[in-house]
Design goal:
Elements lengths: L9 E4 L2 E8 L4 E7 L9 E4 L5 E3 L9 E5 L7 E7 L2 E7 L8 E7 L6 E5 L8 E3 L8 E6 L1
Parallel strand pairs: 8-10
Antiparallel strand pairs: 1-2, 2-3, 3-7, 4-5, 4-6, 6-7, 8-12, 9-10, 9-11, 11-12
Length: about 140
């Protein structure tokens, strides 16, 4: 599994090939990802537990970004512009699921790497998990 994100190389998240194209100057990232419906340019989307994006339509759905290149079929890929501070490979502190709102939870005492945990109330959340991870496994987090 490759975790190369800070350049234009493909990376594998959750078992599928994902492409991040970073724009370092303004902290925007373009992400090519499958959508659960036909989504038009400008649609605000959130990340579902199955790894697809869907239109934000209810309270509690954490917006991940905005569609910049639409798809023409259900399950087709869209390009989502994510305005983020960075994307990090952290360590899960407790089980984390794709699309969970997460927050920092200290650092690992052995490696010094950041720990992230689910923020159930979404009060202190500063990121969204881009993949599933069991406790102490690597997890990719977009820091908003």
């Amino acid at each position: 599994m490759s975790k190369t994100i800070n350049n234009q190389a493909a990376t594998t998240l959750g078992g599928g090939a994902q492409n991040f194209i970073p724009y370092h100057d303004d902290h925007n990232f373009a992400w090519s990802v499958e959508a659960d419906a036909v989504l038009q340019k400008g649609t605000s989307v959130y990340l579902k537990a199955d790894g697809q994006v869907a239109a934000v339509s209810a309270n509690g759905e954490a917006p991940l970004g905005v569609v910049t290149i639409p798809n023409d079929a259900v399950g087709g890929r869209v390009t989502v512009l994510i305005q983020a501070k960075m994307i990090v490979i952290a360590i899960a502190s407790g089980a984390v699921s794709t699309g969970d709102r997460v927050r920092g939870n200290g650092v690992d005492g052995t490696t010094g790497r950041p720990l992230y945990t689910v923020d159930a109330g979404a009060v202190l959340a500063n990121g969204i998990a881009l993949e599933d991870a069991a406790d102490t496994e690597d997890v990719t987090v977009v820091i908003l």
